[in-house]
Amino acid sequence: MPLCLLSASVAGTASVAGTASAAEVAAVLQPRLTFAPDGLRAAEAAAQAEAAGSGVAAWQAVARTVTALQRLDCGHDAGVDGVTTAKEAELLNATEAILDAAAGGEPLAMSALGHMYLLGDPCSPKRNLTWATHWLEGAAAAGQPSALAMLGFLNESRALSRVYNFSYATPAALTARYPPAGGGAYAQGRALYEAALTSGGSVLASLALGSQYSNGFAGVAASCPAAAAHYEAAAAGAMAQLDEKRQRTVEQGWLDSSSEARTLLRKQPAAARESGVDPASVEYMDYCAHVGDVAGQVGMAHLYHSGTHGVPRDTAAAAHWFAAAAAKGDPMGHANLGLVRLRAGDGAGALPPLRRAAKRSDPSGWAGLGYAYYYGLGVRQDYALAAKALSAAARLGHLDAIFNLGVLALRGEGMEQSLHKAERFWRVAADFSHPMAQYYIGRMKARGLGTRRDCETALFFLQHAAAAWPAGNGLLETGLAAHEADRPQRALVHYLLGAHAGLEPALHNAGFLYAEAMPRRQPQLAASYRGAASEYFRRAAVLGSVDASIRLALVLSQDLTAEHSASSWRLANELYAEAARHGSADATWHLGYNYLKGRPEKLLFSLLRAVYEARVFIVFAALGSFVLATGGKRAPGFGAGAAATAVWHEDDDAAADDFDEFDD
Ligand SMILES: *[C@@H]1O[C@H](CO)[C@@H](O)[C@H](O)[C@H]1NC(C)=O
Ligand SMILES: *[C@@H]1O[C@H](CO)[C@@H](O)[C@H](O)[C@H]1NC(C)=O
Ligand SMILES: *[C@@H]1O[C@H](CO)[C@@H](O)[C@H](O)[C@H]1NC(C)=O
Ligand SMILES: *[C@@H]1O[C@H](CO)[C@@H](O)[C@H](O)[C@H]1NC(C)=O
């Protein structure tokens, strides 16, 4: 049996092998409910900072500044007519604070500044690669893990010279300190990623190494145990970031930005951005809310609560609009009003609206009641009633409730302690893409915690959990926005970052931009871009993207200059044949085209090819209008929507939705 040993970088987890009891597993996993009142969270965070030592507080202050800076929405009204808006002032303050800290040698500030100069986000200082590498190297010399990971990426991807024609090579001091083990073009990058892991950890580095080991990319031999260990570390980091992001949603639902993970096509209309949450739509929603439209009120309340899309974060305004919707008898208004109050620790105020929502069979209302009983907010603490309320929510399809029931089962709170039951709850939640459930299942499988040790299954779940990494979605989002704004270099750098973290859409899109956009910018480098394109398409194809193997074949069959043209040609046809076996009509078409190319029929086929490509455009346009037509129905970006299809059936507990027990 292969030993799925996990590296020491996974913090404080003894490996309990074989048949562990539920209590032992609970001690290793330390699972917690997805919902906690703010006061409890703050106290826990303070205790953690205390335990970790005094340096942490200062570090966290800088991290908060950086995060605040990244969150600033400096899109629309920045710098109009030289008037300094409050936001700009805040931005200037934050930038100055970071500059001061960096000049004073604070590694995190140097690293943040390096990232900003490199990626050139709208809110940050203008892109300047000289400054970017200067600050990143300074931070790396001080052992800052994100800077080490970024320099590893720059070495591995050769992005600066390829994308920006900027001459940069990893400095000798760094290669001497982190010498590459073994040979190959990727060894130095890998050494820097490893350095990032040993000096504190970096999700980017863990993902990059995990994807190398799981697929045997970049000259390493594929290894499930090594890949699972890296993905576990990545997933742990992703969970922490996700938790922070969930603080901004009422119920900490899972934010879903899958629309950004699209693959780029040659002819493609601009996307209908995120189900219409542009400024004009927000204005319209605000108008609807004011004239008494319930959906508008709930929508505005969510925007005020999360403080996104140009709406300032304002809990009081959120509560106001939820209350307005509740006054119209809307169960979502009741449930969310209750949850907002519960988060603030106001149990007495939270219970009446939660009860009203539960009475109207609102899943979030039931979940909120469950949390109130679990923490004893406004009622006497009662784990059994908490479990009953959560069961009712779970039966109505509330994904978080299903996950939380698993936590209760493992801890034996409100029900008999049972490892088997916990695993069953989590398995259902994991199958419906609950990242936390995927993370726990993956860790149990990797260690054989109360279940058979199974590296492949562990890797599968840990990879999915790690893919919930919010920053990864951010990269795809920025890449897409830059592509649509016709800024291929900016798009490419973001997609390359995602690609080296092993995200399939990013691999495909990096290949696409190398194949299509970059040669148009710099025709003299077309051959080198083609090489890069085929490498990224190949990696995406290995991850199972049929689309990418077709693209790879296209790139290879364009390669007529190289002396390998015969072998490229053969490989291209093999790829098409493989894709055709997977049922791709496009591939069959290309296959036929390649066989006939060079014959008199060529002209006819060139015409057909033009028609074919127009067809892609038409199909896409139809798809776009479909999204436009249906997208408006969904409230923007709240996790509960994603849970709507998951339903938990527990027959032996059928009395739980008997409401009387929960009434006043
Ligand atoms: C910027 O900093 C100054 C002084 O440090 C402070 O008075 C001012 O309120 C800050 N402005 C913002 C928007 O935070
Ligand atoms: C970057 O900053 C350096 C030093 O201030 C300056 O000489 C250079 O022109 C800048 N580069 C760009 C592209 O702005
Ligand atoms: C890259 O930059 C160098 C000098 O900075 C220049 O000579 C060369 O032509 C550039 N190459 C491309 C493809 O732009
Ligand atoms: C990556 O590292 C190798 C070995 O140290 C070096 O030769 C190469 O120039 C580096 N590449 C980049 C883009 O920094």
Task: Please tag this protein with its features.
664 residues; mainly alpha; Serine Threonine Protein Phosphatase 5, Tetratricopeptide repeat; globular; binds 2-acetamido-2-deoxy-beta-D-glucopyranose
Please report the total strand number as a whole number: 0
Instruction: Tell me the structural class.
Output: mainly alpha
Into which percentage range does the β-strand content fall? under 5%
Total number of helices: 32
Write up this protein.
- The chain has helices spanning 22-29, 38-52, 55-71, 86-103, 107-119, 129-141, 145-157, 159-164, 172-177, 187-198, 203-215, 224-246, 279-290, 294-306, 315-327, 331-343, 347-359, 363-375, 383-395, 399-411, 419-431, 435-447, 455-466, 470-484, 488-500, 504-521, 526-542, 546-558, 565-581, 585-596, 602-631, 639-642.
- It is mostly helical and 664 residues long.
- Among the domains are: 56-201, no CATH class; 278-328, no CATH class; 469-561, Tetratricopeptide repeat domain (Serine Threonine Protein Phosphatase 5, Tetratricopeptide repeat).
- It binds 2-acetamido-2-deoxy-beta-D-glucopyranose (NAG) (4 copies).
- One 2-acetamido-2-deoxy-beta-D-glucopyranose is lined by residues 86, 89-90, 93.
- One 2-acetamido-2-deoxy-beta-D-glucopyranose is lined by residues 165, 522, 524-525.
- One of its GO terms (cellular component) is endoplasmic reticulum membrane.
- Belongs to the sel-1 family.
